[in-house]
Amino acid sequence: MPFFAANLSLMFTEHAFLDRFQAAADAGFDAVEFLFPYEFEADAIAERLAEAELEQVLFNLPPGDWAGGDRGLAALPERKEELQQSVTTALAYAQALGTRRLHMMAGIADPADPVHQRAYRDALAFVADATGEKDITLLIEPLNPRDMPGYFLNSFDLAAAAITDLGRPNVKLQFDVYHRQILHGDVLRALEQMMPIIGHVQIASVPGRNEPGTGELDDFRVLEALDELGYRGFVGCEYRPKEATLDGLDWLDRFEEC
What tens digit of pLDDT does each residue of 92-102 get? Predict the structure, then answer.
């Protein structure tokens, strides 16, 4: 049985952000993830985690100016210094929250441009070193162009090649089932082939990005395959509830009954 983590950036949005931790715990979750913590003091988040007895499993490095259109900095050579500063910020939050996984967003850039390719390789190596010193897993995630137009890392094969070429044991793939299906399909075979480099899994239905079990894929079969393949990590529930979060959580009960 996978270990599920509620994504508090998308789920329990009926509550203010800091109140979502207790809401997730009350709904039966033992772990949570979110996109970014940086609008809040680390101590305030740590207090909510402790009160709710939750494990914080993942968040992203600072992405730059999100409201201004930034979607990460790694592939942008002109933002190198900002990226390096962002690692210091993320590591401080990770230490305060007990988080062992960080996701580095690549940014909006042409994946065929050698300048951006080189910048991304250099950034990956730099952040891998910095996170490795703290015994933290660095994750990279391909994103589909429908949700993230122009995103540099838009291929699972490119992500796998980057991980293999770098050869750092703390750099892993964030395998999002939703993005995989839209980009390439062939989810089950990809899980089997890429399992040695997978460090985190996320799931949502396709095409609506809603609760598992409500789209075109047999999400429950995907989750069963993770068990069969020996995956013992977390599955982040990075989906947008169709209605109130609690109204759609019966998918967890249906999965357990399978």
Answer: 999 999 999 99
